[in-house]
Amino acid sequence: MIIAFSGQKGGVGKSTAAISVAVEWQARGRRVLIVDADPQGTASTWAEVAVEASRQPPAVIAMGATMHRDGQLARVAAPFELVVIDCPPRHDAIQRSALMVADVAILPCGPSAADAWALASSIALIREAEAVRPELRAAVLLTRVQASTALSRGARAVLEAAGLPVLRTALGYRVAYAESLAAGQGPSTYAPGDTARLEVEKACDEIEAFALAREVAPHVA
Predict the structure, then answer these.
(1) Helices 42-52 and 14-27 meet at what angle, rounded to 10?
(2) Closest by CA position to 58, among listed 95, 88, 21
(3) Which of 35, 54, 63, 181 has its CA 20 to 30 A from that of 97?
(4) What is the 3-state secondary structure (H, E, C) of 72-135?
(5) pLDDT at residue 116 tops 90
């Protein structure tokens, strides 16, 4: 299964979400590959930090706007169960390439109405890809949410009217996300008792269920 964390807007936590779920899936014993498609190289730098700290991160490879071509990502991904693509903002060619190979596109979105409004251009790219690949499934993931605020509820309402499913799971605005990445880890390994890990676990479950076109039972806190 190939999951592309996509979207035109920066600063919404795409890399954080992509790395966090990849680490959780690896912790579950899955063979995971992270494709660092962002020229900023966040995932690649994170993996270097992990190795320097004597940790074993998921495999990371840098790829760009040609990953959809024959002999590119398909060949590299063959030994892995799950491939997580960390797309850059505002690079249409790279995002289009990722959407040509992905089974699922996850669009992280911040909790403000402005974040929700900015999602329109990302949804337009999804619609372009769906015209060529109707099997592509896409959903929005709320990120950087501060508890159950009126702001986050308003953003969810706007997003649900935008035309894409919104995952029930949301990733909170938590220190554990930033600290775990700085340590070359994810919340699953850095802060196993933190709420961030529970959020990531739920996100992984829901993304896999969504990819298989079936519902996932609500989690009980």
Answers:
(1) 40
(2) 21
(3) 181
(4) CHHHHHCCCCEEEEECCCCCHHHHHHHHCCCCEEEEEECCCHHHHHHCHHHHHHHHHHHHHCCC
(5) no
Could you tell me if 5 and 18 are in contact, meaning their C-beta atoms sit under 8 angstroms apart? yes
pLDDT for residue 41: 96
The crossing angle, in degrees rounded to 10, of helices 175-182 and 195-211 is 90
Average pLDDT of the chain to the nearest whole number: 90
Q: What gap in Å lies between CA 199 and CA 20, rounded to an integer?
A: 10
Is 182 strand, coil or helix? Answer: helix
pLDDT digits (tens, 9 = 90+) for 7-37: 888 888 899 999 999 999 999 999 999 999 9
Taking the C-alpha atoms of residue 194 and residue 177, their distance in angstroms, rounded to an integer, is 10
CA distance 112 to 190: 28
Report the amino acid identity of residue 144: R
**In whole angstroms, what is the distance from residue 161 CA to residue 141 CA?**
14
For residue 133, the model assigns a pLDDT of: 95
Q: Which domains does the chain have, with CATH numbers?
A: 2-211 (3.40.50.300)
The burial class, CB within 10 Å (0-12 / 13-18 / 19+), for 143 is buried
CA distance 177 to 188: 10
Beta strands in the chain (DSSP E): 2-5, 32-36, 59-62, 82-86, 104-109, 137-145, 166-172
pTM of the complete model beyond 0.85: yes
- Range in 61-75, 142-156, 175-189 the model is least confident about: 142-156
